[in-house]
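My current task is to audit a protein record that another person submitted. My question to you is simply how this chain folds and whether the tokens agree. This is what I was given:
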Amino acid sequence: MTDEKLSYEQARSELASVVERLEQGGTSLEESLALWERGEKLADVCQRWLDGARERVDAARAARAESGE
């Protein structure tokens, strides 16, 4: 599955696993860098989901305000 197709929950769960592995240590520098890079990509996926949710909430509030409710 490509990163673009990950749900927010999938990306967040994988990101939590990446963070846990980094915190545990015991990986080589190369492995740690690969984990860090993966974590950055997953954080970006999560942020895009959150930004999209914020836009939807803002649009719904604006529509409600325009209708006078």
